[in-house]
Structure formats: structure tokens, C-alpha cells
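Following up on my earlier thread - several people asked me to post the actual chain instead of describing it. Fair enough. Here it is, all 168 residues.
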Amino acid sequence: MLAIGFGFSSVTSYLTLYGKETGLMEAASYFFLIHSISVICSRPFTGKVIDSRGANIVVYPCILLFATGMFIYSRSTATWMVLLAAACMGLGFGNFNSAAQMIAVKNAEPSRLGHATATYFMFLDLGFGLGPYILGHIIEGVGFRLLYLLASCIALICMPVYYNGLWE
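Reply from S.P.:
Thanks for posting it. Predicted structure:
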């Protein structure tokens, strides 16, 4: 969650600046609307899938969707690309966030549920907090497009990290 939150913080922090740089400010203004609609519409279905088939069936596609969204966002030259990226990131990040929290709670001893939840959110917040600071320095050297491409790669690296964790 730390790495995924770190990557997503680049969008939440620099959406307006990226929109201005690319001339896609109007699309940027609809980004979180599309993102939110994707999350709201998909979570009831992904929750049922997790309950019936386990978290892995949702986690891997979510990481791929998030990485795909970041990649599309890094290459956006038109409104439809920004909105497609928002939908992919909503499906990816939004559902990964829920699945990862469920995994953290599910794998904790009942007496440690509070610690598991706190640790989960501490790492999410750490990603969201450190991301803009660190990535802001990187943007100066590589620009937005390469930064978002790097964030896409960071998300893809999360797949083998998750797999090697043997969460389920």
C-alpha cells in the first residue's frame, strides 16, 4: 500500500499542474469525478468476488489496472485519455485499497485488529505524504510524463512483491 499510495499521490498532488502543462485542464477537472464513479460502481462487485473467490482474484487485476491507468495518464494527449486513465485508476487503486485493508485485517489476530488497521493506514498515509515531496524533486529533472511512467512501473513492481508475500 505504501508503494501504490506513493504512486497515486503523484496524481492527487500534481493533477492541476499536469493539466496546465498538457493543455488538458478541462479533462483534469473531471478526473476525480470519473475516478469516484469507477470506485463506487465497482466496489460492491469486487467485494462479492473477494468474499467468494479470495483477494488474489481482485488484487492482481487492480494492480494492473492502476499501472495501466498511470501509463495512459503519462501519455495523455486528449480528454478521453485522461478520463480513461481516471477510470482505470479508480478501478485499480480504489479496489486495491479496499482489498489490501481487508487482507491486513483478515491476517491479524483478533486482539491485534486495531494495530493491523493502524499500520495499514500509517503506510498508506506515508505513501501519500512522502510521495509529493520526493516526486516533486523528481519532476524537476524528468518532467511529468516520465514521472507518471515511473509510477506505472512502481505499481507493476508491486505484483511480484505481493506474490512473494504469500498473503493468502
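The longest helix spans residues 113-165. That should answer part of your original question.
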